Request: fold
Amino acid sequence: MAIVTNLDVMMAKRKVSLKELADRIGISNTNLSLLKTGKVQGVRYKTLDAICRELDCQPGDILEYRPGEEEEEAGDD
Amino acid sequence: MTGVWTKRFVNALLVLVAIAALAAVLRAGGAIAEGKFHMVSYPASSENIRMEPLGGWATVWQLQEGTVRVDDHTWLRIARLVGQLVGLGLLAGIFWQLRGTLVRIGKGEVFTEANISSLQMIGKLLVAASVLSISIVFMTQYAILEAIPPMEDRVIHSSISWSVKGVENIWMEYEPPIIPMLLAMTAFVTAGAFRSGMEYRQDSESVV
Reply:
């Protein structure tokens, strides 16, 4: 997928742990971990809104489009 | 209906199918014992209604339906018996697939690959049963028509045939398996709907 999640970078910048952020935005640790590692098919606006609010950032800080990422991933397989 | 009762209900249907198969075999055994296994009868109806008075013409005994019988057709009797047993086997297969589907739905596993496969299999089995039914009927009617010698005053027809003027027309009866074919179509459409449901569920589950 050419969409890359930079949630871990933003969490490190804000010094927030996965568990703490999960508690603050109201989703499970498992789901937040899946989102962080990019293993989801989609993100609800509601979730994105809560993350941006808690991390004081923009959606673009969390999600990034990297052309060619898909081919690299396929090559890795 | 709970999963347990669903299982019991379909199990009862499976037992009925087994009893029907046993009855068919026993009937064949009885016919062999009586020396009648070479006879094949098939329902037919005449365009003429024979009427006999029942103590006066105000009340009558009407005769229109009967059976056409041919002798020395042991092979046809065997083929029909085999067809009947295969048909019952297909019916048992349909009930078995239905049992699995209903039990899974009872457990809350609705939009799953297993249910989609079962529904598609039910559709295929219904189509096979319909084709088998039509084949047996055509084979039987053809064999009976071949065996009957030409007559001056009567003509025996297959189910799809034109009437002949000046003689008594007798048609062999047949009702095409419209309901099984409609059920097969419904099973395929339902399988498609279940696939859409499964895709929707998978998409929903992967969204956080």
